[in-house]
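Box 3.1 A note on notation
Throughout this textbook, protein chains are presented in two layers. The first layer is the amino acid sequence; the second is a token string describing backbone geometry. Keep the layers aligned when reading.
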Amino acid sequence: MDEFLNIVTHMDYLDWGVPGLILFILHFVIKSQIIKWSGSGALIVSIISFFSPDVSWTIQWVTFFVFFILGLYLNRGDSV
């Protein structure tokens, strides 16, 4: 029961999940690889944070920036 309460009360995954979902949905309007991969990265970090609430902020930010840089790389040929 304590483990369940720890997961429920530890809401770091919402810090990444809500903006990630907004960015991922916004990608369908703007059609940008940067927005698509940034949103995907944020959603993945939110999933990691949900299942492993003790993951450090450094790992969360590194994961997000890897996806952001991937979006920059894939977006280099697109006209935004």
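The chain has one domain: 2-75. The first helix runs from residue 2 to 9.
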